[in-house]
């Protein structure tokens, strides 16, 4: 048992098993390295404009890079999607590229929307992602039907002093 801010943290056999499994997993969604250690975060805000139609689910075709992970990995907290033109129904897809393979991470359904001429944007949504990119991974974005989206990622690079 360790103490963090006066609260006990129990590291059971099951906890250790989960940690071992997920630390070796290609998805890296489990990380407790912040427990009992000082960790520094540096903002790594990603911005891109996705507008070329890509119907593939395999990561082929045109994808736009949103965030590239740092040497210790990058935590992607959320993504914000805003329309730039009138939008027809379709999907906005997020992919992980590890240098060799591209895999689908998330699909977001996009409902038809019309951009108002009186205001700049008619559609803006925040989606929590809570995903840990391992070193060198790239978060990429593609749109199914050629709608134009401005996509922003709130991400943090991990460093250990």
Describe the structure.
- By secondary structure, the chain is mostly beta strands.
- The chain is 7% helix and 46% strand.
- The chain has one helix and eleven strands.
- The protein has one helix spanning 13-24, and strands at residues 2-4, 7-9, 40-43, 46-50, 64-68, 74-83, 90-97, 102-110, 124-133, 138-143, 149-159.
- The strands form three sheets. Strands 3, 4, 6, 9 and 11 form a five-stranded antiparallel sheet that branches. Strands 5-10-7-8 form a four-stranded antiparallel sheet, with no helix packed on it.
- The chain is globular.
- It starts with a strand and ends with a strand.
| Uncertain ranges | 1-11
Count of β-strands: 11
Helical content class: under 10%
Rounded to the nearest angstrom, the distance between the terminal CA atoms is: 24 Å
Integer-rounded radius of gyration = 18 Å
- Sheet-strand content, in percent, reads over 45%
Anisotropy-based shape:
globular
The computed structural class is: mainly beta
Query: Which sheet architecture does the biggest sheet show?
Result: 5 strands, antiparallel
Q: How do the SSEs run, as a string of H and E?
A: EEHEEEEEEEEE
Q: What's the rounded overall pLDDT mean?
A: 77
How many H/I helices?
1
Task: List the defining traits of the structure above.
single chain, 5-stranded antiparallel β-sheet, mainly beta, disordered N terminus, 4-stranded antiparallel β-sheet, 161 residues
